[in-house]
Amino acid sequence: MDPVTINKTRAWLLHVERSDGSPVEDAQIAVEGPQVTENRGNGDYLLEGMRFSMAGAWEIDLTIDAGGQTDVVRFAFELK
To answer: What's the pLDDT tens digit per position in 26-71?
Structure first.
């Protein structure tokens, strides 16, 4: 995430894998605001529409559904 610019829309490349390191294929990923726009294969997903309006503490929650299982991942970070 370096550098992150305030008020600029960005895309993130997410890599989703199991605890054994194998990629999670064909997952449905939900996030409030931005959206996953592309499954790039091998556990990689393009998340577009990330925009931070101010400095401070942020949390991004992703709900990942794949293979009959659901998991929630939280990214917590601070922009200065």
So the answer is: 999 999 999 999 999 999 999 999 999 999 999 999 999 999 999 9
The answer to whether the CB of 61 falls within 8 A of the CB of 73 is: yes
Q: What is the CATH number of the domain that holds 32?
A: 2.60.40
3 in a structural domain: no
Residue 80 lies in a domain: no
Q: Which of 77, 11, 5, 10 is nearest to 44 (CA)?
A: 11
Asked if 29 contacts 64 with a C-beta cutoff of 8 angstroms, the reply is yes
Is the full-model pTM beyond 0.85?
Answer: yes
